[in-house]
Design a protein that fits this description.
eight-stranded parallel beta sheet, TIM Barrel, 390 residues, alpha/beta
Length: 390
């Protein structure tokens, strides 16, 4: 988006961390910390980004970089650049435009949007909002009929790909949320309630727009209401700890299209994913929100790519904050990257305009880094692009 068309607060954002600061100002504290926080001591959350600094770029000089090609093909879709939008739940909590705004911004930028099972906008409404590439992220619940219905609804709505998240059979210990009361159901403290009062713009839109609900699931829960807190409590109790490879294979067979497994951190699991017919693995630790002290995705990309790069696509999800991060991941063998928190910061800061600016900034950083490193095409990114600093 041209900077002249952005609201003034968005014009002052020149990198993704600037958007984080804007989101912190715009959101009531419990909502900001829900986006920003991680599990336990948040070691993994911090290391996801810090680990990129362990690898240095090796630029090449006197290369013709007149024309830069960032186009790539991921999960059957032709994309203008190699960063997809990760699935994130309950986006309307953070801005009243919610998932529709993010999906439209992704389409405008030429990339893929991923809709969460626990979204506040339905599969069908997102499909109606944009014709851009779309993936649906499935959480497996104990009620198999719901899982199958969600898959079938995605097929009917012409989603391009399906993603099965496998690292959330129980919710991580997110202590920031315990402190702010951003739990399900909420248990807000006086300080937290005061934070809502100090953000009248957020409260105004909350009161003036349709009630928040987990739009893809609310019709199934007779004992609850349409309120997010009631539905969330139910869903947290419905995550299926019996989820296994046999069931993942059944999901892939029912979907019969491009299929990714999200939450992979080992060669062994990547190999199992290939064996059951997955099109891609998404190397992810859920943004450091599940099991703390696991590896940063960038630190396991190369070993998975070396073992299985010819059998499936490899997507890195976690810690991406700079264009150089994306290029390092691709040099190690990733097909593409995903990001979640940064676009939520942009959404909170300025709705669709904020998300578009986040994407424009990151896309520009990738192009600039390609020029300065002497690589005109993503195909030129290989292990020679980086040096292990350690």
């Amino acid at each position: 988006m041209p900077i002249s068309l952005c609201p003034p607060s968005i014009q002052r954002c020149f990198n993704l961390d600037d958007f984080r600061q804007q989101a912190k100002r715009k959101l009531p504290a419990p909502l900001f910390h829900y986006i920003d926080g991680g599990a336990d001591d948040e070691i993994t959350r911090a290391n996801n980004t810090a680990a990129f600094n362990n690898y240095q770029i090796v630029p090449r000089c006197l290369e013709d970089v007149t024309t830069i090609n960032m186009k790539t093909r991921v999960l059957g879709c032709e994309l203008d650049w190699p960063v997809l939008m990760s699935p994130t739940g309950m986006s309307r909590f953070f801005h009243h435009q919610g998932e529709r705004a993010v999906a439209r911004a992704a389409a405008q930028s030429g990339t893929m949007y991923s809709l969460s099972t626990v979204a506040t906008t339905s599969i069908e409404d997102v499909a109606a909002a944009t014709s851009g590439p779309k993936m649906f992220q499935l959480y497996v619940l104990r009620d198999n009929a719901i899982n199958e219905e969600l898959i079938d609804r995605c097929r009917a709505a012409n989603y391009d790909a399906l993603c099965l998240t496998v690292d959330t059979v129980v919710q991580g210990n997110r202590e920031r949320d315990l402190r702010t009361g951003m739990t399900i159901p909420p248990q807000l403290t006086l300080k937290s309630l005061a934070s809502f009062a100090l953000h009248p713009a957020w409260c105004y839109h909350y009161l003036r727009t349709p009630a928040l609900e987990m739009a893809n699931l609310s019709q199934h829960i007779s004992e609850g209401s349409s309120q997010v807190s009631s539905l969330g409590k139910y869903i947290n109790g419905q995550f299926d700890r019996a989820l296994n490879w046999a069931y993942a294979e059944k999901v892939a067979a029912r979907w019969q299209g491009p299929f990714a497994i999200k939450g992979i951190l080992s060669v062994e699991d990547a190999r199992r994913a290939a064996d059951i017919g997955a099109s891609a693995v998404i190397i992810s630790n859920h943004g450091g929100r599940q099991l703390d002290t696991v590896a940063a995705p960038i630190d396991v990309v190369a070993e998975i790519a070396d073992a299985l790069g010819d059998k499936l696509e490899i997507i890195l999800d976690g810690g991406v904050r700079r264009g150089t991060h994306v290029l390092k991941a691709l040099a190690m063998g990733a097909t593409a990257c995903m990001m979640g928190r940064p676009y939520l910061y942009g959404l909170a800061a300025g709705g669709q305009a904020g998300v578009e600016r986040v994407l424009d900034l990151l896309k520009s950083e990738i192009e600039r880094a390609m020029i300065l490193s002497g690589r005109a095409d993503l195909k030129q990114l290989d292990p020679s692009f980086i040096r292990d600093q350690l």
